[in-house]
Write a structure and sequence with these properties.
- With 408 residues, the protein is of the alpha/beta class.
- It has a single domain (8-407), classed as Alpha-Beta Barrel (TIM Barrel).
- Helices cover 41% and strands 12% of the residues.
- It contains 15 helices and 11 strands.
- It has helices at residues 40-48, 58-65, 86-91, 107-110, 113-130, 143-149, 169-177, 208-220, 231-240, 264-272, 289-305, 311-322, 333-347, 374-383, 388-407; strands at residues 8-10, 17-19, 52-56, 96-102, 135-137, 153-160, 180-184, 223-225, 245-247, 276-279, 352-354.
- The strands form 2 sheets. Strands 3, 4, 5, 6, 7, 8, 9, 10 and 11 form a 9-stranded parallel beta sheet that branches. A two-stranded antiparallel sheet has the order 1-2.
- It is globular, with a radius of gyration of 20 Å.
Length: 408
């Protein structure tokens, strides 16, 4: 998840934020990439594969927009205000979708994070109950192929933002009881027990309580997710965890130097736990220019915060500055697959997957504006010479293996 409900995202406890970013013109990083054409062979492979997307923020977006309170709202219809609905999931060939309860870091100051998390998990349950012909809750790895085999979309629950537990292992256990099968240790702000990637370090990684959280997740079979975490937090999670560690929606720092992307060292470390990196689809985290653009926003945000502006003044100044900035990056499917290629070379074919971040990002690659676009990934993998077996690992088999190992 990149943006919070105010269309601004807090990047640190000191108020660094990135405003809502809108795509404009393509940047220069398109050499060797372009639009691709779907072939029957790719579509056949895609139909045969178990396609699992590891990260989707639709629940929070539904609540933020009040869509669930609108008369007649249903995911059976195309929902233009969302990037996700059942017709487009079907078109994308998605067999299993992890929907996350994204909890804004604002709750660390206002309270109510646990309540907000439960509200979103309950919404996921409600969506499953009101769409029984298409969705079915999956709480174990074995549920996924069984549900997909019945022609339904296996619906899994994740939690994004460890601050949601409000420093309580009992709250964490409750999320597991409600079906959550991974938790992202941080969002963009450092918590009381874990440093975030965008924030200033406080703990040097995980605190002793943070290590306790990781061990508790291992014990109950909940995957430890290190997307958004600082490098030191990732290192600590790798060291402490006795089960596979995942990054549910992160990309490669060697290609795009975003603060929330992963170094080769960390990618290897995650793979060493038996875990995997699930590539984020947001162009800002995919093209090389993205890191510099992101840093400009962070630097300007910090400069404004030093002036002690009111929140309203800050947003006005930031919005005026944003309008003067150059275009945000677009990218092609090939740029996304460049990150998959890199992870395969660094960590091996068994340690990479897809974590789109749809409905938590403002736009995706060209030809992939929403969840209908997953077949284009299959096509590009095929174009690059990946075998059918390896494509199926990337599309979903790797995640199924990792979840199975965490359950053990």
């Amino acid at each position: 998840m990149l943006f919070n409900r105010r269309k601004f995202i807090s990047l640190s406890s000191n108020g660094i934020i990135l405003p809502l970013m809108r795509p404009f013109n393509l940047l220069a990083q398109t050499e060797g990439h372009g639009e691709i054409t779907l072939t029957e062979e790719a579509l056949r492979i895609h139909r045969e594969a178990l396609v699992i997307d590891g990260h989707n923020d639709m629940p929070g977006k539904i609540l933020n927009k009040g869509l669930n309170s609108r008369p007649g709202f249903t995911l059976n219809d195309v929902q233009p205000e969302l990037q996700t609905d059942i017709p487009r999931l079907r078109k994308g060939g998605v067999d299993a979708q992890v929907f996350v309860a994204y909890i804004s870091p604002d709750h660390m100051r206002t309270g109510g994070g646990n309540r907000a998390c439960i509200e979103q998990i309950e919404l996921i349950h409600s969506l499953v109950k009101t769409h029984p012909e298409a969705l079915e809750l999956a709480v174990a790895s074995g549920d996924i192929p069984r549900i997909a085999g019945r022609g339904k979309i296996a619906t899994l629950v994740g939690v994004e933002g460890g601050h949601a537990i409000e420093n309580s292992i009992k709250n964490l256990e409750h999320y597991y009881e409600l079906g959550a099968r991974y938790m992202t240790l941080t969002h963009n702000e450092t918590t009381d027990w874990a440093d975030a990637g965008y924030d200033r370090p406080v703990h040097g990684g995980l605190s002793s309580f943070g290590e306790k959280v990781v061990r508790a997740m291992n014990k109950m079979g909940m995957l430890v997710d290190v997307s958004h975490a600082s490098d030191d937090t990732v290192r600590d999670a790798i060291k402490v965890s006795r089960a596979p560690v995942i990054a549910s929606h992160s990309s490669v720092k060697a290609i795009c130097p975003s603060s929330r992307n992963l170094t080769d060292e960390l990618i290897k470390g995650i793979a060493g736990t038996g875990g995997m990196v699930m590539v984020n689809f947001f162009p800002l985290f995919l093209v090389p220019e993205g890191g510099a653009i992101e840093q400009r926003y962070i630097d300007h945000s910090m400069a404004l915060r030093s002036r002690n502006l009111t929140p309203e003044q800050f947003r006005e100044e930031m919005d005026a500055w944003q309008k003067q900035q150059p275009s945000m990056p677009h990218c092609y499917v090939g740029h996304l697959v460049d990150h998959i290629d890199h992870i395969v070379k660094v960590a091996g074919i068994g340690h990479v997957g897809l974590g789109s971040d749809y409905d938590g990002i403002t736009y995706g690659p060209v030809q992939m504006p929403d969840v209908s676009g997953f077949p284009y990934v299959t096509q590009e993998l095929l174009n690059r010479g990946y075998s059918t077996g390896d494509i199926k690992k990337i599309l979903g088999e790797n995640f199924l293996r990792v979840l199975t190992e965490a359950e053990r």
